[in-house]
Amino acid sequence: MPSRLPPLVIGAVSSAVLLSGCGATSLGLGAADDTSGPGASISKRLAALVPATVRSKGTLTIATDASYEPNEFLAPDGQTVIGMDVDLLRTALQKLGLKADFVNAKFDSIITGVVGGKYDLATSSFTVTADREKQVTMVSYFSAGTQWVTAKGNPKGVNPLQPCGLSVGVQTGTTQADEIAAINKDQCRSHPVKAVVEDLQSKVTTDLLAGKIDAMAADSPVALYAVKKTGTKLQAVGKITGAAPYGIVLPKAQTDFGNAIAQAFAAMVSDGSYDKTLAKWGQESGAVDMFAVDPAVAS
What we know:
D-Maltodextrin-Binding Protein, domain 2, three-stranded parallel sheet, 10 helices, 13 strands, globular, signal, Solute-binding_3/MltF_N, Polar amino acid transport system substrate-binding protein
């Protein structure tokens, strides 16, 4: 297990800036935590932080786009949603005395669904951005960047720093789709990147394996897992860029509940379940020590 500082929690009213780490304050979680009984994972102290309107529901409906392996994807039964994000949030909610019902949803419809009340929460590898924080409350819990992937041997000689003219697969509504759009407005204005946009990340990966695109760009955990899973068929090219936090998505008015979730994540670091979950999915490199409600991020 990597050596890390004690976990920190930043509330919504904090002036801390996540990018610089300034102003972070520990809420004094303590080493021990009372539970509801032998073997139980509910923390009475943390459960008391959950707003009554949320607590009364008992089971929360949580949206996720189950095409983003290993973060969120379908089990072999084709119905059960599993993955790193699912395990992390389920464990955090258990500490708060809540249950989770994960439902598969189209990625670019999820935030609208949370805002409209269709879903109570969402976890789907959402990068925390200033635009998203205008619509919803977000709780940071992991760090990821963008990784490019090509066919093994990089037969097209792809250089992510010189992408003009390449066909690049991305998923609808993702940070990578936004990055390609920005590149085409600037660096590749005269010779744009051909963005092949798919609703599902699994389809993007399939396109690359089939030779329909020159490369794909995805969040680093997903991209590197695809390389590992396909054996000798794919390879990562270039460095991971634009590292930024992932965030749990809540309705905009639920900052108090967001603070409870942040404290639950911090408690998971203390008891080892956070590191254990990341190790299960091979994602230890994205571990963070700071869990922030509506963290300040670059625009």
